[in-house]
Design a protein that fits this description.
Layout (H helix, E strand, L loop, with lengths): L1 E8 L3 H12 L4 E4 L4 H4 L7 E2 L1 H9 L4 H6 L1 E3 L1 E6 L2 E7 H5 L3 E3 L2 H14 L3 E3 L3 E6 L7 E6 L2 E12 L17 E16 L8 E4 L5 E7 L2 E8 L10 H11 L2 H6 L5 E15 L2 E2 L2 E3 L5 E2 L7 H22 L3 H28 L7 H16 L1 H12 L6
Bound molecules: 8-demethyl-8-dimethylamino-flavin-adenine-dinucleotide (RFL) and P-hydroxybenzoic acid.
8-demethyl-8-dimethylamino-flavin-adenine-dinucleotide binds next to α1, β12 and α9.
């Protein structure tokens, strides 16, 4: 039998960051991760950090690599067919810059720091089950090899992503689900080629496209694709041709092509489970909510959930003050819903839906024109893209 103060389910960015922040408050935790560390660090996902996430990582002593390797920028561009693109100018309108830095690198760095500090991370923890969540003495069981282990704890943090076990440990009648599926996905590639330099979202009648980056010789690109798309049908040449067609000519010409080193398809979904607390279980990150990646919000939300949760647990263990724990779900959900709304809106604006008719297309074009003309409209977008501040 083992014991810890906080059992953390899931060793993705949310789980490892929570473990690190708790350690800084002298709170003990054990992370149970279903996969191997090598597998977790192979996943390629987010690329854009809000300033609030950047600052949190810096303040937590986990920002050095990000500041060395990341690319700070003033926002992102939106292009529409061959019209002039405009900048979502987060620096001017929200007073906050953004940072391009890969989730893979952030997670790798958090694992390094956690291991340096003697953090306990159990890889390949299978069949994780949560027990007695509404008592003051919850526990977690899991299989490691042929052995079933029991972990006793004061709290359980469900950081095990959308397909994890934590959310499903909450009785159905307690949990309220809000959901939207989209009739398309993103086909993404990574290539060791110089990026166009900025994050550029493009709407085109053939579908959405996105140009992004990881470093001066690592580019990330996505195109909207049908849900029945097979990667095998998209050799690199076909991908590059399609990508270039969806950007205005002058941007398309700047795209440097080369062999892909990764290619994957992600479905798009909006999803929120409420509340984020059940007894002594607290959900954080993708375990509780998913946004379509268009607004670059998923990882940033995981980070803000973890910020609120570590503050709440720190107050509990320091002086028995449970006010933040009691407000955790409401506080985190306010930020979640703001990002849900923004990501849903930007996804609708920039993608082509199978049932978009001529009216819908004109309405979207008019909205783009309004953003182009009105600095108030651009300010509203910039404020949300930059990310709302954390609540006190
Ligand atoms: P994760 O990363 O899914 O980690 C959960 C971990 O839990 C483990 N697990 C279990 N462990 C034990 N027992 C079980 N039963 C378990 N079940 C699962 C898993 O193996 C995994 O290691 O969730 P977390 O930590 O909440 O982090 C969330 C982010 O990964 C996600 O929101 C972002 O990647 C979303 N996202 C983006 N977010 C941004 O903020 N900016 C972006 O630019 C951005 N771009 C993206 C994205 C997501 C994408 N995809 C592939 C969905 C671009 C894409 C294409
Ligand atoms: C990425 O770089 O992977 C990326 C950038 C912006 C998004 C989504 C993903 O909105």
């Amino acid at each position: 039998m083992r014991r810890t103060q906080v059992a953390i389910i899931g060793g993705g960015p949310a789980g490892i960051l929570l473990s690190h922040l708790l350690h800084r408050h002298d709170i003990d935790s054990i992370v149970l991760e279903r996969q191997t560390k090598a597998y977790v660090l192979k996943r390629i996902r987010a690329g854009v950090l809000e300033y609030g996430s950047v600052k949190l990582l810096r303040d937590a002593g986990a920002g050095e690599r990000m500041d060395r390797e990341g690319h700070a920028h003033d926002g992102a561009w939106i292009a529409w067919q061959d019209r002039a693109p405009f900048l979502i100018d987060t620096k001017t309108y929200a007073g906050r810059p953004m940072m391009s830095h890969g989730q893979t690198a952030i997670t790798e760095e958090l694992y390094r720091i956690r291991e340096r500090d003697g953090g306990r991370i159990v890889e390949e923890a299978e069949n994780v089950r949560l027990h007695n969540l509404t008592s003051s003495a919850p526990s977690v069981t899991y299989d490691k090899g042929a052995v079933t282990e029991t972990l006793e704890c004061d709290f359980v943090a469900g950081c095990d992503g959308f397909h994890g076990v934590s959310r499903h440990s909450i009785p159905k009648e307690t949990l309220k689900i809000f959901e939207r599926a989209y009739p398309f996905g993103w086909l993404g590639i990574m290539s060791e080629t110089p990026p166009v330099g900025d994050v550029i979202y493009a709407r085109h009648e053939r579908g959405f496209a996105l140009a992004s980056l990881r470093n001066p010789n690592l580019s990330r690109y996505y195109i909207q694709c049908g849900l029945d798309t097979e990667i095998a049908d998209w050799p690199d040449d076909r991908f590059w041709d399609e990508l270039k067609r969806r950007f205005p000519d002058d941007i398309g010409r700047k795209i440097v092509t080369g062999p892909s080193i990764e290619k994957s398809i992600a479905p798009l979904r909006s999803f929120v489970a409420e509340p984020l607390r059940y007894g002594r279980l607290f959900l954080a990150g993708d375990a509780a909510h998913i946004v379509p990646p268009t607004g670059a919000k998923g990882l940033n939300l995981a980070i803000s959930d973890v910020f609120y949760l570590q503050r709440a647990l720190a107050a509990h263990f320091a002086n028995g003050d449970d006010r933040y724990l009691e407000r955790y779900s409401d506080m985190a959900l306010r930020r979640v819903w703001a990002a849900e709304r923004f990501s849903w809106w930007l996804t609708k604006l920039l993608h082509v839906f199978p049932d978009d008719d001529a009216f819908e297309t004109r309405i979207k074009l008019s909205e783009f024109d309004h953003l182009h003309r009105s600095k108030h409209a651009r300010a509203m977008v910039a404020e949300q893209y930059a990310g709302l501040p954390f609540e006190d």
